[in-house]
Amino acid sequence: MSFVGHIRDLAAARRELETRRLLVVGGAPDADRSAFLDAVAREVADEAGLPVYRFRVADAGERSGEAGRTPGEAADAVVEACRGVFVVHPCVVVVDGVPAGAADAVPTGTADGSRLAGLISAFAESESFLLVGSTDAREGASALPSDGCADGWALLTRAAVHCDRGDPRAAGPLLRRAVEAHQVAGDRRGEAWAVFLYGRMCRLRGRAEEARRLLHIARERFRAVGETPGEAWACGELARLAARSGAPDPDALAEARRLHERVGDRRGAAWAHLWWTVARADEPGFPWREEFTNVQGRFHEVSDRLGTAWTLHHHALTLARTDGTDGVAGTAGTGGTGGTGGTGGTGERRREADRLFEGALALFEEADCPHGRAWTMLEYALRSPAHRFLNGEWAAEIRHVFHGIGDEAGEAWVDLAEAGPSPDGEPPYELACRYPTALLDTLGWTEAGEPLIPRAARDTQPEPRPGFPRPGDRDRLDDSGAHVRLTLLDDVPVPDVPARIALQVVPGPGHPWSTTPLPPLTARATSLGHAEIDPAHGVPAAGAEFRFTPHRPGSHRLRFTVEDPATGTVLQQVEAEIDVVPSDPGPHRPTAPAPRPSARRA
């Protein structure tokens, strides 16, 4: 935004900075502009309890002792100093004195070539506030509108990279800002990609229902704007969701592959081909060796190291788990040499698997993918005990890599590999509370006591399910209690449109209310965010229904309190989070959506 002619509009500037964490002030005399930037920065910093760092482009050359430094070189020094400050920890950064013609002042970073946009994009990875003072009135007036869409695409790219690395935590803040940028720019195509990445992020976090809902929305939006490649990617992600329950859907993956090929998306077709092959690799008679080789060739054609790494990983995994067959009719035999290029004895298969694991590990390291690296280290160690770390720290090293990306589920698999099968055959709590029972039922063990971890386990980093009973609670079923059940009756809530929520009190089989009518309980509802809920209180708890009207996208928290009006006793209080997806850009203030679950049941 530009403050030329009205640089004293402090309240508007503060709102802009708090909403977008970015403020560009153009034009105006240097002294007035600097004083204005300092006033806004000081107010925001004091309220948030953050330090303030100030940089002037004009002073950079003098501080470095190079009097002949150009404005662009001086700006480079400022930007490098900023990168070392605001990316490390939250703060308020003021960069003043950006000269006229920002293309000569700040290093190039985003697709539209604006060097100011490069600074903004680098800043987007942090949680800091950035204030930029430009000596060019035109730059200040145009920076946000013209860079909004380009910045949104840069943020989406960064979010996708974090998902590829297996670190979905870092993708969330970037996606929230990307949605805002695309909504402000009116870019429906960009917003569709943002919703798709939200769905992908939810799949990675193991939130299957949320991922399915968002991916369906993304697919419909891709169709509406004619973005067929995006539609193909959404179909592929939806098909991969089925694998989480232990029942992959190869036909849907094959259809996604055909859709990619129809629009000439070779990279998308390669990924769909890989996941189709992985879904069928354990089928008797499937020619997995030929298919993995074909997939590897596809990824080489598009120079996709990450895809090649995962292909080698799954190829090695399949090879290490076979008994000598290549999955081709007529090739079999433990220690046989099958007629279609089959491997020889167990030793030869193990050596080939080792080579593939080593190749995958090297590529994951080159691609900076700790998720793939950790899983490859784990499977390599399990399949080749002789190559485990000699000092006995192999499990600790792998656990450390998982921990670096916040993958507690991966750490739990390492714990299982280290501990071996349990005497009662039950999976450990840390796995049972994260994965569906159907997937854990496919867990196997070798004669040597090494786990045969389901392939789908490495596709997600599921969080613990709320309320999942801990081991000590398994024998204490709560049949004598009464529970509050919340049901969202309207699918896909959007801003400013009422959605219905049903509340029921459900007594357990051992509760006295299970055989008698419920007493005249009441239920109160309270919105803890930017939403309205009606009626607010005094609703009979038996079959209560509320109307929830959010005023912005994102996560909304609601509190429900069930009381006995006769005694004034609060019987139970529960909270639910309902995530509202963004509608097409409208009059409401755009904010980032969060994946929408159904109302959580207490």
TrEMBL record:
Residues 330-346 have a biased composition (Gly residues). InterPro entries: TPR-like_helical_dom_sf (IPR011990). Residues 584-596 have a biased composition (Pro residues). Residues 326-350, 453-479, 577-602 are annotated as: Disordered. It holds the Pfam family TPR_12. This is Tetratricopeptide repeat protein. It comes from Streptomyces mirabilis.
